[in-house]
Amino acid sequence: MTGPQEQSLIIRDITEISEMREVEHLQKDVWGVADREVFPALALVPMIEVGGVLLGAFDGDRMAGFVFGFAGREQQQAILHSDMLAVRPEYRSAGLGYRLKLAQRERALAMGIERITWTFDPLQARNARLNFGKLGVIADSYRLDYYGATTSFLHQTGTDRLWVTWLLNSERVKDRVSGTEQKRVADAGDGTVLRVAQDDEPLRIDVDASVASVLTIEIPADINRLLTQAPDLASRWRAATRAAFTSLLAAGARVTEFQFVERNEGRVGQYLLTRSDSKAPY
Q: In this predicted model, which residue has the larger pLDDT, 254 or 207?
């Protein structure tokens, strides 16, 4: 199948029950979950009625992806919590996930909402690149096994999540969505607390977090390959990243960037964290 052209995809509201049923099918196709873990169409109807936003991307009559968020409150502010984003694999090269998030941002701002939150698996490097590099989110909260055990093939190592915040009208976010991504940051050197070793093993490094201006946590570039080929190694990465994130965030650091860096004739993912007393843009 040839890749879809970005301009052929139309993003619009999903309002018909028949299309909400397609949202059910898409959850199963993309995440491989059992019927009991599918968010049902009949629950989407009233949530949209009271402020939820459900947007679909269509290639002709075919739904290529969707994003769904519901209204909530955080820190005494109205927010939209973006609970689901799914894109069929053959459409991911068209940047559809990014386009769906931009459409969600526009809708939230039109509703007078300036903050969107969501969770994602910090071992998924492509999602980290989208969230931090292109959208400009920040994160200061790590949730252990957030969804518990599920039937999804993606959740073999548990469902730990970073809780991210998208401050829609911040200068940082405006710069990112206008196409100005962060410049590549040099390796942190003494600030690296978790490194991808030559054999893809996680290597924990003792660092004085109170001294380093930038801290880094590295992850494999493709955890899904490890889930298939070396599941025990993938589990070790879950344990290592859990320990690194929880200790640094508890000490007052926040995650502000993600980048890919070249290493050993390949590349690895690299999170950058700054202390809460730093001058890094929030």
A: 254
CB half-sphere exposure, 142, CA atoms < 13 A: 20
Give me 280's structure tokens.
């890094």
Structure tokens at 135: 């959208």
- 3-state class (DSSP) for residue 194: strand
How big is the chain by its Cα radius of gyration, in Å? Answer: 19
Band (pLDDT 50/70/90 cuts) for residue 207 is confident
Residue boundaries of the structural domains of the chain: 6-177, 189-275
Torsion-angle region of residue 30: left (phi > 0), alpha (psi -120 to 50) or beta?
alpha
Quote the CA–CA distance of 272 and 104 in Å, as a whole number: 26
Split at pLDDT 50, 70, 90, the class of 265 is confident
**227 vs 220: CA distance, rounded Å:** 11
Tell me which residue of 218, 219, 220, 195 sits closest to 205, measured CA to CA: 195
Q: Report d(CA 188, CA 237) in Å as an integer.
A: 20
Token pair recorded at residue 146: 């957030």
d(CA 135, CA 237): 25
What amino acid occupies position 25?
A: H
Burial category of 69 from C-beta neighbours within 10 Å (exposed 0-12, middle 13-18, buried 19 and up): buried
Q: Considering the domain 6-177, what is its CATH architecture? A: 3-Layer(aba) Sandwich (3.40)
Model confidence, pTM: 0.91
Q: Mean pLDDT across the stretch 21-47?
A: 94
- CB-count exposure of residue 232 (10 Å: 0-12, 13-18, 19+): exposed
